[in-house]
Amino acid sequence: MSTNKLYFQNDLVSIFNEDVRKTTQIDAGAIDLIITSPPYNVDIQYNSHKDDDSYSDYMEFSRAWLGRCFDWLRNDGRLCLNIPLDKNKGGQQSVGADLTCIAKEIGYKYHSTIIWNEGNISRRTAWGSWMSASAPFVIAPVELIVVLYKEIWKKSSGSKVSDVSRDEFMNWTNGLWTFNGESKKKIGHPAPFPLELPKRCIKMFSYVGDTVLDPFVGSGTTLVAAAMLGRKGIGIEVDKGYCRLAEKRLLDAMGGKTSDLGQE
Ligand SMILES: C[S@@+](CC[C@H](N)C(=O)[O-])C[C@H]1O[C@@H](n2cnc3c(N)ncnc32)[C@H](O)[C@@H]1O
Question: Which of 2, 79, 131, 238 could join 34 in a cystine, given CB atoms 3.0 to 4.6 angstroms apart?
């Protein structure tokens, strides 16, 4: 493995400072589980990524990185794809459905969709035509976690050791997940997801010791969850400042602060 794009590495975790579409750092068939939240193309002010492409360019960007990830998965590997249901900024789009279709065209098989109820209704700013049927504006305050896999849903590789508790399993197999989003200010990144999201996906869909990849690692939330749960983690991030943040969060978390990942 060449190390020129390697930003950070320890026994469990590697972070590559690179564009996911161009990296040559990951071997085909090396990944058990991918958990990621790609840029949503809603004009978020990232340091190094322009988040306001045309919708068709955004679909091509999505096709490119989803294709790379497909090659990196094992045959029984899985993808938990955190994306919006709908996009409203710059015109209504069925972005969740469109990205799911692209993934299926690439070859992913569809398992199910988890609805993440963020409970954040304060984002509502537009009503359309107020109290009139002329052009009302409807928005669901949820995001999706689309669960896809490469070839075979039943896992045959790995340690066969699961660490999900009975209560967690019973609660999380109900695909309506309710927990709050993460504070951008607290984390220092414009679009972090909460630790709860990768924690649930890791415990539900991987064995202890598996390798988990986040190709848009941002502030490193997936890597923190992976390291705390005894999985190997690989992160890819185009922005060096966010790589630095991910490294810091990871080292802070591994320095003993593990209580927020305990069983429910
Ligand atoms: C929605 S954020 C991910 C946030 C992450 N889940 C967290 O908890 O912090 C998307 C990230 O993808 C990064 N990014 C954008 N384009 C990229 C590319 N082509 N390759 C790798 N990373 C990219 C952005 O810099 C941003 O940090």
Answer: 79
Q: pLDDT tens across 48-65, in order?
A: 989 999 999 999 999 999
166 C-alpha vs ligand 1 centroid, how far in Å?
A: 33
According to DSSP, the β-strands at 211-214 and 6-9 are unpaired
Domain membership of residue 1 (yes or no) is no
Asked whether the CA dihedral 99, 104, 108, 112 is positive or negative, the reply is positive
Q: Round to whole Å and give the CA distance between 76 and 185.
A: 37
- Beta-bridged to residue 15, according to DSSP, are 8, 235
Q: Residue 89 has what pLDDT?
A: 77
Rounded Cα–Cα distance for residues 221 and 250 (Å): 8
User: Ligand 1: which residue has its CA nearest to atom 8?
Assistant: 192
Distance CA 242, CA 188 (A): 9
Residue with tokens 């689309």: 146
Cα 179 from Cα 188, distance rounded (Å):
20
Give the number of the atom of ligand 1 that is nearest the alpha carbon of residue 221: 8
CA atoms within 13 A on the CB side of 203: 23
Strands 142-149, 109-117: pairing is: antiparallel
Which residue's alpha carbon is at the smallest distance from atom 19 of ligand 1? 19
The CATH number covering residue 246 comes to 3.40.50.150
Token readout for 149 is: 């896999």
Question: Could you tell me the two tokens for 252?
Answer: 């802070």
| Whole-structure pTM value | 0.94
Q: Tell me how many domains the chain contains.
A: 1
Section 120-141 average pLDDT? 82
70 vs 80: CA distance, rounded Å: 12
